[in-house]
Every structure is written in C-alpha cells, then in structure tokens.
C-alpha cells in the first residue's frame, strides 16, 4: 500500500507545511510579546494618570494590530493543511488532535476577537480600568490560543491519553486532562511563550533605538526601552530554565532528537556537552539528560541497534525488532477487519490481542529503512546552537540596556542603539531556530513512534502540491512585504501627538 505513494509528494507536502508554519511563526511571537508589553504600559497609564503612557501604548497597539491581522490569516491556512495534505493523519488521530484546536477556536480566538475591538476602539468610550482589562484580556486570549495549539503540538511529540479502536481504525481520547496538561505541553508552553516575550522586547527596544538614532521621540523611546528590557530579562531567564527542563524531557521521550541535536553517534556515561567544534563541557550532557553526571546517554547508533539498559532496568530493543512488532500490529489490524467482515468473533478477539500487545510499535510497521529514523543531524546540531547562543546574547543584551538605563545614558550611546536595531532580526532567527529543533527533531514521525509521515500523508498528485506550494510562497511573501511596509510607515510616522 505504501509503495504506491510518491515519495516526492511527501517531501513537497512537508515543504509546504514547513513554509506555512515558518511564515506564520514570524507573526505569532511578536503578537504574544507586544501583548504583555502593552498591558504593562497601559497599567502604568491607569496607575499614574500620565498621558505619556497612553500615547506610548497606543503606538505599540498600532503595530500589534498590523501584526495580529496578518498572523490570523496565515494561521488559518496552516490548519487547513491537516485536512488537505495530511488527511490520513486527521483520520487516525483527529478525535484527539482536533479537540485542543477546537477549544482554541471557540474559546481563545473569540475571546481575542471580542476584546481586541474594545482595545482599539474603546478609548474615551469606556472607563480606563475597563479598557485596561480589555487590553490584558486580548493578550490573555492570544496566550490561551497559544496554549491549546502547543497542547496539540506537544501531543504529536508525546502522545498520551488515548486508546486505539480497531473498529474505527482511530485513536480515541480517554483522558482529556492527560492531553491538556501533559508535562511536555506545560514546559513547551512556558518555553515558547516566554521566548516570544523576549522577541517582543527585542522588537520594542530595537524600534525605540531607531528613534534615538534619528534623534526623535527621546522620552517615548527611553520609556519604551525600559519597560521592554525588564520584560526581556525576565522572559530570557524563564526561557533558559524551561529550556533546561524541556531538554530533560526530550532525553526521556525523544532520545533520537537529543542525539541528533548533539551529533552524538555513540553514547556512553559521563557524556560531555559539545559547545562548538572541540569545545566541550565535561559530563554536562549526561547531567542535562539524566540529572546525573555519570548518567548514560544513548547515541544515534545505540538507539538504532538497542541493547543498552533503560532506566526501568529493561533492555532497549533494536529498531529492526520494533519494525517487526509494528508490522505484526499492522497485519493484525488487517486481520481484524477481515474477521469483522466475516463475522468471526474469535478471529477478531485474537487479532485485537495482537494489536494491543504490539501497539507501542505500531508506527514502526510503516518504516521501511531504519536509517530514515535519524533526522537531519547537521541542521539540528547548528539550529540548537544558534538558539542557545542567541539566547545567551539576549540575556547579556537586556542586562546591558537596563544598566545603561540605570545610569540615565540610554539616549546617548549610539553604538548601543545600532546594536539594538540589528538585534531585531537576531530575535527572529533564534525563534525560528527553536521551531526547527522541535519539528525537524521529530522526523520522520508525524506523531512520535505512532505514525510516520509516509502513513500520515494524503494521496495527492505531486504536481498539485507543488502548485499550492508556490501559490502559498508568493501569497505569504506578498503579505510579509506588505506588513513590513505598513509597519515601517507607522514607525516613521511615530506616536500620535494628540488623541
């Protein structure tokens, strides 16, 4: 059955999803980051009554609105692909994966849509406190939206709370709370959202620095930079802490991703963490992965060949055996459906027992070459280092901005203004690198160990996917150029001088 699927069509479907996801992720972090900065600025306005903060927050709201609108458009197209390009995936786990996306649409999106109108058009029409509540609730809606999307994504990395129903050939949710509050989802939420705050802070500081370079809006720029720097410093510290815990979770549930991130082919105990080249931190990888400096970390070859001892004392199976057990489950499913058609109750029961015994390896039944289980090591290795390296850069950056602000020199140091301006694209690079690590690291799985891409994809003509790929590429590029142009025009105009 799988042999009839054109592998180039799978590659084009992957490329199309990657294209739309990466374009969409250009807008989401800024939305989340600006939301909290706007909320803090308007809180200062309500507490102090200083019109300066009202003028300041209205400017950043304008940029928020431009970015928010384009983000919604790209997000809708992204979700539609689950039905068009990945219909087998949607059929197999739609009962589970669709639940958080439905909640996101019904609860979070309508919450955003309701309060964003008050936020933009409610000035001087509602009380200060009501408008402040609308601003925070808009940001909260965007954050809740991110929560449910990240729940769905985390479930793909760590599928829990489900049972397979051979009658419907679908996985069905049996524990909603396990899906909604899985430890992987919780940590991914904190890491992703707080890193978005970091990007938003870098954006605000960079744009404010442009005004100082142009010798315009000094008070506005300095005030904005101070608020953003505090948000950025807090976000960077929490992002680093959540990243450490996320790395530990990856070691437990996605060891191949960790091995690829470190380009570790042959593991062992007391493994060092590679910084770059021959620069290594002794025993650090073992500590991060096992919380023990002498802990055993399997490499790529170890994971393929098996034979090492797991934490529960059992022995890791080789991939070849996992593939054999997966094929047993796949064949037993076919036998179950045949027995059901023939009304053979005993045959159905026997097949179901085989399915249950081998279900943990079901996805391996569709793997044809063990080497395809190794993701792109080069891309993961360097994406991870770009992400971590830029995270350390931004930690130092926010500290420097705050120290300079404390000495009342923010408006005077031109070199810092230029660094701040050019830090905006660095924040986006760090954010995109993080998603590359998360998503490429899971390959070739659509759902970790449960469903590989070749079993998840729709049966489409390669030419159709290629056509839509280039349509989306052109359309998203036009949207991005338009958004940048509108934002630059708004920035050049600057904050409104009057209501």
| Topology as a string of helices (H) and strands (E) | HHHHHEEHHHHEEEHEHHHHHEEHH
Low-confidence stretches: none
**Into which percent range does the helicity of residues fall?**
over 70%
Largest sheet: 2 strands, antiparallel
Structural class based on helices, strands and sheet pairing = mainly alpha
The portion of residues forming beta strands comes to under 5%
Q: Enumerate the strands of the largest sheet in spatial order, edge to edge or round the barrel.
A: 1-2
What gross morphology would you assign?
A: globular
How many angstroms does the end-to-end distance come to? 66 Å
What's the count of strands?
A: 8
Mean pLDDT: 91
Oligomer state of the chains in this structure = single chain
Radius of gyration: 25 Å
Helix count equals 17
Describe this protein's structure.
By secondary structure, the chain is mainly alpha-helical. It has helices at residues 7-24, 28-48, 51-84, 87-121, 128-157, 176-180, 183-213, 218-253, 255-261, 284-290, 300-305, 319-342, 345-358, 377-406, 414-440, 453-456, 462-493, and strands spanning 162-165, 170-173, 268-269, 273-276, 279-281, 296-297, 445-447, 451-452. It has a two-stranded antiparallel ribbon with strand order 1-2. The chain has a two-stranded antiparallel sheet with strand order 3-6. The chain has a two-stranded antiparallel sheet with strand order 4-5. Helix 8 (218-253) packs antiparallel against helix 14. The longest helix has 36 residues, at 218-253. The N and C termini lie far apart (66 Å).
């Amino acid at each position: 059955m799988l042999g009839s699927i054109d592998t180039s069509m799978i590659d084009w479907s992957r490329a199309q999803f990657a294209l739309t996801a990466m374009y969409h992720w250009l807008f989401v972090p800024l939305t989340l980051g600006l939301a909290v900065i706007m909320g803090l600025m308007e809180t200062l306005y309500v507490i102090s009554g200083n019109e300066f903060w009202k003028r300041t927050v209205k400017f950043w709201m304008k940029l928020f609105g431009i970015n928010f609108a384009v983000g919604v458009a790209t997000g809708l197209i992204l979700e539609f692909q689950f039905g068009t390009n990945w219909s087998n995936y949607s059929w197999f786990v739609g009962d589970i994966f669709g639940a958080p996306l439905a909640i996101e649409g019904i609860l979070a999106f309508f919450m955003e849509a309701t309060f964003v109108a008050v936020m933009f058009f409610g000035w001087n029409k509602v009380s200060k406190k009501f408008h402040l509540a609308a601003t925070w609730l808009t940001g909260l809606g965007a954050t809740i939206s991110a929560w449910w999307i990240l729940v769905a994504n985390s479930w793909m990395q760590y599928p829990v709370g489900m049972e397979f129903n051979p009658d419907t050939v679908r996985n069905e949710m049996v524990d909603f709370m396990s899906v909604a509050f899985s430890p992987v989802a919780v940590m991914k939420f904190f890491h992703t959202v707080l890193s978005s705050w970091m990007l938003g802070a870098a954006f605000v500081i960079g744009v404010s620095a442009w005004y100082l370079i142009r010798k315009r809006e000094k008070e506005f720029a300095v005030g904005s930079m101070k608020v953003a720097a505090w948000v950025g410093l807090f976000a960077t510290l929490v992002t680093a802490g959540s990243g450490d815990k996320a790395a530990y979770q990856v070691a437990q549930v996605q060891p191949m991703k960790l091995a690829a991130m470190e380009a570790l082919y042959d593991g062992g105990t007391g493994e060092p963490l590679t910084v770059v080249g021959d620069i290594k931190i002794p025993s650090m990888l073992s500590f991060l992965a096992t919380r023990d400096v002498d802990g055993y970390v399997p490499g790529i070859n170890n994971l393929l060949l098996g034979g090492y001892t797991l934490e529960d004392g059992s022995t890791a199976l080789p991939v070849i055996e996992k593939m054999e057990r997966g094929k047993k489950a796949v064949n037993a499913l076919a036998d179950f459906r045949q027995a059901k058609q023939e009304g053979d109750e005993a045959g159905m029961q026997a097949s179901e027992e085989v399915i249950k015994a081998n279900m943990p390896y079901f996805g391996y039944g569709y793997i044809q070459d063990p080497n395809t289980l190794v993701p792109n090591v080069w891309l993961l290795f360097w994406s991870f280092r770009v992400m971590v390296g830029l995270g350390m850069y931004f930690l130092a950056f926010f500290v420097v901005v705050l120290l300079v602000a404390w000495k009342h020199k923010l408006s005077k140091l031109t070199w810092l203004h230029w660094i701040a301006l050019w830090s905006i694209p660095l924040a986006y690079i760090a954010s995109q690198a993080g998603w590359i690590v998360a998503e490429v690291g899971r390959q070739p799985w659509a759902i970790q160990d449960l469903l590989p891409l070749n079993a998840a994809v729709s049966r489409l003509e390669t030419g159709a996917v290629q056509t839509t790929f280039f349509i989306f590429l052109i359309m998203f590029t036009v949207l991005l150029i338009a958004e940048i142009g509108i934002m630059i025009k708004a920035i050049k105009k600057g904050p409104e001088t009057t209501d």
